[in-house]
Amino acid sequence: MRVMKGQVLQRAGELNTKVFGVETGLLRSYTIDEKGKEHIFAFANEGWTIADLCEVTDPCELFIDALEDSTITVIDKEERKKQVDINTVVNRIFVLQKRVIMLMSASALERYQHFLKTYPNIVQRVSQKMIASYLGVTPEALSRVRKELSKAE
Amino acid sequence: MRVMKGQVLQRAGELNTKVFGVETGLLRSYTIDEKGKEHIFAFANEGWTIADLCEVTDPCELFIDALEDSTITVIDKEERKKQVDINTVVNRIFVLQKRVIMLMSASALERYQHFLKTYPNIVQRVSQKMIASYLGVTPEALSRVRKELSKAE
DNA sequence: TCCATTTCTTGATCTAGATCAATGCCCGGC
DNA sequence: GCCGGGCATTGATCTAGATCAAGAAATGGA
After folding, report:
1. How far is the CA of B132 from the C1' of C17 (A)?
2. What is the Cα–Cα distance from B70 to B9, expressed in whole angstroms?
3. Which of A75, A92, B106, B138 sits between 20 and 30 A of B77, alpha carbons compared?
4. Within 7 Å: CB of A7 and strand D?
């Protein structure tokens, strides 16, 4: 299935949400808080999947849209559960564990440096606004962090 | 296996770490940052498991210790992967998804209220210092949040 | 190509929560 | 039962990052 940049695949509140597999392109999942601010939960590029892992009977909390023109597959959650490798899922938990610890203990600078190291291929494909949102800081704060980094060569 | 309150089951940096199943009692996992501050990643009471889900060949990043005298089982990670129900693991991801979103968008008050609602049985069994650490705020900040809450009846 | 929109940057100010410090309290070990 | 160390509370101060604002630089659509 082909989707265009900007196309929304899932909105918060929807039921019976799916798992999206990315063949080419880039998707993201995010929430919008009560003040209207977006918080990016995840990026997914080639070879990755993205979903809101709520129960299929519950309204989801994440939006999912395309950051680039993409080719995707739509998979039913129950179907996916049958196929998925346990190691993949466990690794997903480990990545989230790292993320939680980051958010609890690391400064804006440390988070950005970790992001650069961990997702070098994503960095060039998304705006700083998106990176800031993923890191849990404002674009202004990220801009200043980058300025500091460039000053220090 | 019986462990006493305060006993450390795993230290950051150890290899070939295990999964701990709690039969009775209460365990926690946490990191210690470069300033020496503890950040609690998880609590596990009766019926739950707790672990650092890093690769068995990698040094782990979490400490695990007992907050109460407990009875536990020690399970090998590979063994556990064979037995574990995929729904359990997927739900774990969903809980972490909520936690990440919380940490990115919610105030200390909102986090505390969510914790009260989600883990009412843990609340009475741990100190406020522990709860504060889990929420990613200082004990002082949590104390003030609670004061506000009690004022509002 | 031009215009409009969005992004990035920079500056000024504000604020939630951190840090530091002092006190009283509880609780567990001896 | 007493003593000492961690815990909770409160107050004063500090600070990383948010917010607000305004200009410059990309970006994209017609």
Report:
1. 12
2. 12
3. A75
4. no
What's the DSSP call for residue B92?
H
Strand D and A36 CB separated by under 7 Å: no
Helix axes B139-151, B108-118, angle to 10 degrees: 80
Torsion of CA A125, A129, A133, A134, to 10 degrees: 20
**Is the predicted pLDDT of residue B151 greater than 80, yes or no?**
no
Q: Say whether B16 sits in a helix, a strand or coil.
A: coil
Please give the Cα distance from A139 to A128 (Å, whole number).
Answer: 7
Q: Where does residue B17 rank: exposed (0-12), middle (13-18), buried (19+ CB within 10 A)? A: buried
Q: Are B126 and B43 in contact (CB under 8 A)?
A: yes
Residue B84 neighbours by CB under 8 Å, 6+ apart: A86
Residue B62 contacts residue B11 (beta carbons within 8 Å) = no
The minimal CB distance from B94 to the residues A54, A101, A105 is found for: A54
Of all nucleotides in the shown strands, which has a C1' nearest the CA of A137? D17
* Residue at minimum CA to C1' distance from nucleotide C18: B138
Taking only the tens place, the pLDDT of each residue in A18-72 is 999 999 999 999 999 988 899 999 999 999 999 999 999 999 999 999 999 999 9
Angstrom distance (rounded) from CA A113 to CA A108: 9
A97–B contact, CB cutoff 8 A? yes
Residues 106-145 of B with CB under 7 A from strand D: 127-129, 139-140, 142-144
User: Which positions on strand C lie below 7 Å from a protein C-beta?
Assistant: 7-12, 16-21
